[in-house]
Design a protein that fits this description.
Blueprint lengths: L11 E7 L4 H16 L8 E7 L4 H14 L3 E5 L1 H10 L5 E6 L18 E5 L4 H11 L5 E6 L4 H13 L6 E6 L6 H6 L7 E4 L3 H5 L1 H11 L3 E3 L3 H4 L4 E5 L1 H16 L10 E2 L3 E5 L1 H6 L6 H5 L3 E2 L2
Parallel strand pairs: 1-2, 1-3, 3-4, 4-5, 5-11, 6-7, 6-8, 8-9, 9-10, 12-13
Antiparallel strand pairs: 10-12
């Protein structure tokens, strides 16, 4: 039942799915929920909230998509590229709000970041790769060979690899790839880069982020500096990351969901990109990986992991 005095005509139902559970994607989910509360939609009062993780499995993501569509929610939030792709392939009518998708156009979720005219909109975690290259140079000034561990089957990662191949040579660097199609492959992919690279950079690839400890183990043992795009990975062993606030990104998506619940069409709402970038630094990881960070660099960070 609705509480007395509410302005909403009926309870609303929001279903949420993520491709996998890891700190960044969990922060998106929590941000969506908090934004909905601020917008007047609260679970147990006037909102039915349902969440499922695909546990890193694209087949499971497709099953969840079909299940959610059968339940006819007022909006579905898709966190991560594979979950968003599964939903967009499965329904052209139920509103879909994606989040934590690096390139929604390459992933074929929307044709442009303007209003899509379809049932899809959302918030992207796209980063300016020039700033990521600058960060690599700040932490490892002598780096010539940049390694990347990624899942070639994840559209957002393939796009980043393609862009880095074009961008790094402008700074006198080259890219060395190691593929990790599954989370369990991350450690062996990282080991394959030992002796071949001066630094390892990771984007927001969901397989890699969900198994970051395996990557950090290789970085520490082999003294290969690790730079990340996901700030939560700094707490888990990366030296530094200049990344989006995933809680903030989730809040952006949550506001979009609220607009849909209040009657706007998703196709009329432009897609958004992350509004806030934050530098996280881990001096202890730098020491383990053979890097001396300047005091100035450490002071410039929003968060210094102790």
């Amino acid at each position: 039942m609705l509480s007395t005095g509410t302005t909403f005509a009926a309870d609303k139902f929001v279903a949420v799915t993520a491709i996998v559970e890891h700190p960044a994607l969990d922060a998106v989910r929590d941000g969506v929920k908090e934004a909905l509360i601020k917008e007047g939609f609260e679970e147990g009062k006037n909102l039915k909230w349902r969440y499922q993780s695909a546990q890193g499995n694209t087949g499971t993501a497709a099953q969840i998509a079909r299940q959610f569509i059968g339940e006819k929610p007022d909006a579905i939030v898709a966190i991560g590229t594979p979950s968003a792709q599964a939903l967009v392939a499965a329904t052209k009518t139920i509103p879909i709000v994606y989040s934590a998708v690096t390139d929604p156009i390459a992933a074929q979720l929307v044709k442009s970041l303007d209003g899509s005219g379809t049932n899809v909109t959302g918030s992207s975690d796209a980063l300016e790769l020039e700033k990521q290259v600058d960060l690599i140079k700040q932490v490892v000034p002598q780096a010539k060979r940049v390694g990347i561990v990624y899942n070639p089957g994840e559209a957002n990662s393939s796009v980043v690899v393609k862009q880095l191949k074009e961008l790094l040579p402008k700074s006198g660097m080259t890219l060395v790839e190691a593929s990790a199609p599954r989370s369990v492959d991350v450690g062996s992919a990282a080991r394959s880069l030992v002796g071949k690279v001066d630094v390892i950079y990771t984007n927001t690839d969901n397989n890699v982020v969900s198994a970051y400890e395996a990557l950090a183990k290789v970085g520490n043992e082999s003294r290969i500096p690790l730079i990340a795009a996901d700030t939560d990975s700094v707490k888990r062993g990366a030296i530094a990351a200049l990344g989006v606030s995933y809680k903030g990104l989730g809040e952006q998506a949550g506001v979009i969901v609220a607009r849909i619940l209040k009657g706007e069409k998703p196709g009329d709402i432009p897609s958004e990109t992350a509004k806030v970038l934050e530098l996280f630094v881990n001096p202890a990881a730098a020491q383990k990986q053979g890097v001396k960070l300047s005091d100035e660099f450490i002071k410039s960070a929003k968060v210094v992991v102790k």
